[in-house]
Structure formats: structure tokens, C-alpha cells
Specification:
Distance between the termini: 51 Å
Largest sheet: 6 strands, parallel
Shape: globular
Low-confidence stretches: 246-257
Strand content: 15-25%
Strand order of the largest sheet: 1-4-3-2-5-6
């Protein structure tokens, strides 16, 4: 397969379409995480067409952010896209996407776009949704794929597509990690060796929270299987299962779910990382409802996202992990 490199929407629209068109949107500097998205798109599209967009969107970079130094590696990007199964790399210029300059009419991310990443980077999600809407119109896909590493972005795109009746299916693809657990990101290349060691605290904190959550859910399951009555505990003790009885009794007395304990387990790792050299500077640690990115409360059941953002040196990194509370009752 030879991947076509196109720079205008007219060139893309002139292609004869057969089957489904799947689109993967990127800002370039492709890595294995992007390749995973492209391979998944290839599976979904089948005999159809996979289009990878490469566009560094100026609207979603705030003052002092890294627009100018954001890596631009188009030749290498085309090779990676081709190896992963893309039919087209669509790499438009700023003038092609925003003819006449920055658009006066933009998509508003609403209240969800003002939380977490939005509070740290005002206007970021408005710019992101505006370019996603533009690229959806320019590429006209049947399905568009986005990584779950940018969980808030994915949630907002899904909300925009639903609220504004875009005729496209949105697919989220799980985060791809390096062998040491660090989530793949184009910004990882900015990290020095020492900074990278500190940056591992992001994923380690998430895994600590996830482990705490798994332990709580296991206790909840045990409590459902072993009624926490005094008579039952005595009977279990008699046959050497007093620990199970004690666990069941403790869980029966505890508030279900335990979001606070999950946050606390993750926070311990991040607090330790703040004392490293170089230190980790935390922006936020949050355990949120993925439908609106508000903090979950005690007793929450259903899906949640444990999310973290921090700076190591001059590099800002984000990561998250999905959790489910009280899956069965």
C-alpha cells in the first residue's frame, strides 16, 4: 500500500469512496499510540478507507504554551501512517483549515470544558472542538477514532457529536503505554532522563489508585458472598476463615465505593514525587464522572475516570485510567 499525502480538501473529496471511511485526527509527531489508533481504524474500515489528519491547531494553544516548539515530523509521520495501514495522510495548511484567518464563529465546550484541563488551559477545548468540527466536515468520515489518554477531550467530542447531531460514530481506543508505564505522548521526547524518572509517578499514582479500587471491589464482592452476621462470623472462624468474615463485616459497615480512598492512594505517590529531583509539580488529581467531568462522591456507582496532570521541568503531561464502582450489587 502506498499512502497518499494530500494537503487540500478538494484533493480528498475527489477520491472515489468505497466502503466506510475511518479518520484518525493527530497533530503529527506520530508514535506507537497513534499507530494503534490507525491499526484499529484499519480493522473498522475493512475494505474502506483510513484517513489520518496531521494538523497542529493554533486555536488550542494558549499563551506561553508550546505551539512553536511542538514537533513537526511530516515525512516520518507519513511512513508510520503507511506502515499502520493508512490510505491517506491529510496534512492541510493553516490557511486551508482557517481561510481568512482565525474563525469568528467557534464551538463552545460549555461547562465541561471549563473543568480540569479547561481550568488550567482556558479556551483550549473551544479551540479543540472547533478544529475537530472543521476536520469532520473536511474529511466526511463514517467513524472517527480518538485515544482515551485524552479522556476529557474524548468526552467532549462525544458530547458535541451527540448535541449537534454530527452523523459520525466516535470510537475511543485505550491508552498505549511504554514498558515502564508512561503513557505514550509526543511531549515525552522533551523529558531528560531524570525528568522521565520523575514523570513515571503519573502512571504509578494511577495504578496505585486502581489497585486500591480493585481491593475495595474485591471486599465488596466478598461481602455479598459472605453475610456479615455475628453468627456467620463465628461459624467461619471455627473453620479457619475468620479473616474472610472480618473483611465482610468491615465492608458491610463501610460506605460503598470508596472514592476518597482511591484518591488518597494516588495522592501518596504524587506527594512523594513532589520531593524528587527534579520534582513533580501537580496541576490536579481528580476522580470524575466521565459524563460531565465533575468529581464523584462517596457512594458513587458506575463508571469513573481517575485523572492526573502535572509538570516535570517545562513539560506538562496528562494521564488517566478508567474505573467502575459497584459493578454488581
Amino acid at each position: 500500500m502506498t499512502t497518499a499525502l494530500l494537503s487540500t480538501a478538494d484533493e480528498l473529496h475527489a477520491r472515489v469512496r468505497t466502503g466506510r471511511r475511518a479518520v484518525v485526527m493527530t497533530m503529527g509527531a506520530l508514535h506507537e499510540g497513534h499507530a494503534t489508533l490507525i491499526r484499529t481504524a484499519r480493522e473498522i474500515a475493512g475494505d474502506g478507507e483510513v484517513v489520518v489528519t496531521v494538523f497542529v491547531n493554533p486555536l488550542q494553544f494558549g499563551a506561553g504554551e508550546d505551539l512553536d516548539r511542538y514537533p513537526r515530523t511530516l515525512d516520518a509521520d507519513v511512513k508510520i501512517a503507511e506502515q499502520a495501514g493508512a490510505d491517506v495522510v491529510f496534512a492541510p495548511s493553516v490557511d486551508e483549515v482557517y481561510p481568512g484567518g482565525e474563525p469568528q464563529v467557534r464551538i463552545s465546550a460549555g461547562p465541561m470544558g471549563e473543568r480540569l484541563e479547561g481550568s488550567t488551559r482556558p479556551g483550549h477545548f473551544d479551540g479543540m472542538l472547533t478544529v475537530v468540527a472543521k476536520l469532520l466536515h473536511l474529511t466526511r468520515p463514517d467513524v472517527a477514532l480518538y485515544g482515551q489518554k485524552d479522556a476529557q477531550q474524548l468526552a467532549l467530542i462525544r458530547r458535541m457529536v451527540r448535541d449537534l447531531n454530527f452523523g459520525v460514530e466516535i470510537v475511543g481506543v485505550p491508552t498505549v503505554r511504554e514498558a515502564d508505564g508512561l503513557a505514550l505522548s509526543s511531549r515525552n521526547r522533551y523529558l531528560s532522563t531524570a525528568e522521565r524518572r520523575t514523570a513515571l509517578a503519573l502512571s504509578q499514582a494511577l495504578f496505585a489508585g486502581s489497585d486500591r479500587h480493585a481491593a475495595q471491589e474485591a471486599l465488596r464482592a466478598r461481602a455479598r458472598e459472605v453475610p456479615a452476621t455475628h453468627a456467620r462470623a463465628e461459624a467461619l472462624s471455627a473453620i479457619g476463615e475468620s479473616r474472610a468474615a472480618a473483611d465482610a463485616h468491615a465492608v458491610a459497615k463501610a460506605a460503598p465505593g470508596g472514592p476518597a480512598a482511591v484518591r488518597a492512594a494516588a495522592r501518596l505517590v504524587l506527594d512523594d514525587a513532589a520531593r524528587l529531583s527534579p520534582p513533580l509539580a501537580l496541576d490536579y488529581l481528580a476522580l470524575v464522572d466521565p459524563s460531565d467531568f465533575t468529581e464523584v462522591r462517596a457512594g458513587h456507582t458506575g463508571e469513573a475516570v481517575l485523572a492526573v496532570a502535572a509538570r516535570v521541568g517545562t513539560t506538562r503531561l496528562i494521564d488517566n485510567i478508567p474505573l467502575t464502582f459497584g459493578a454488581a450489587s
